[in-house]
Amino acid sequence: MRRRLLALAAALSSLPLALAAAPSAHAADPTTMTNGFYVDPDSSAKRWVAGNPGDGRTPAINASIANTPTARWFGSWSGTIGAATGAYVGAADARDKLPLLVAYNIYNRDYCGGHSAGGASSPSAYASWIAQFAGGIAGRPAVVVLEPDSLGDYGCMNQAQIDEREGMLTGALAEFNRQAPNTWVYLDAGNPAWASAATMARRLHEAGLRQAHGFSLNVSNYLTTAENTAYGAAVNSELGARYGYTKPFVVDTSRNGNGSNGQWCNPSGRRIGTPTQLGGGAEMLLWIKVPGESDGNCGVGTGTSAGQFLPEVAYKMIYGY
């Protein structure tokens, strides 16, 4: 595993002070410590391909989805969380690859939407869970997306609940800083259709964004990369103007190849987007949601549960119909 330090000083020296990117809490760049992104060998798409070798859709799903580096989501279903994250990043590290992980277990998760409701049983239970999550990664290189939807999901929450949530996220970031020095953590910032850039900048800052490497956009959504990069720039403009710093951001491109039709829950006619890579108008374009996994009991996934792999949906996403 290659280990080189990220040269922040030179990159930041030419930026105006008010708009300089806030230094990451981590000295190392995990993308330079590894040789490409890790393909989850046990993703829902991989399991379906392995179990259906004779299906006519299998070659396309295998080539276009199952072998693209995609994030693995961790929650209450993951068992002993430190062991689970440790095993996953350990397997990636043994192959000199960079793993993508999603922490998705915050107390009162999806409180307003409901399709993915659940999470830890209390704020203290979450604090323990996320501390073990970070401890499992330890010093190995990784990328973590922290709690998708958590900062967009305020519509039905009172101020005390909002304060509680932001406190949990701030505490989570502190744990990664303390225990996982070679992990880049992106605090999720929803998507351009959810909250204004000014509102999201304030929520990010109040949830501890200074401690994170950056923020993530479009997780499990369908908005185009161009829409997201413009929004990310607008959020950074607000952060710079209000708080004196900016942050890198990543975009989930797994299902945005045809953009959005205005629906977020299993809409028809969507298409896979640009595979996981560095750059693309953001710091990274990532597949965070596995194409073909259901958003819940809705749309073309009626009768299914969130996270269930739907091969016909996956197949149609490859071709955009």
Automatic annotation (TrEMBL):
Active site: D149
SUPFAM superfamilies found in the cross-reference section: Glycosyl hydrolases family 6, cellulases (SSF51989)
Single GO MF descriptor: hydrolase activity
Gene3D superfamilies: 1, 4-beta cellobiohydrolase
Keyword Disulfide bond belongs to the record: yes
EC top class, as a word: hydrolase
Name of the featured protein: Glucanase
Top-rank taxon: Bacteria
Family: Belongs to the glycosyl hydrolase family 6.
Keyword Metal-binding listed: no
The entry's keywords: Carbohydrate metabolism, Cellulose degradation, Disulfide bond, Glycosidase, Hydrolase, Polysaccharide degradation, Signal
Catalytic activity, EC: 3.2.1.-
PROSITE patterns, per the entry: GLYCOSYL_HYDROL_F6_2 (PS00656)
Residues annotated as signal peptide: 1-27
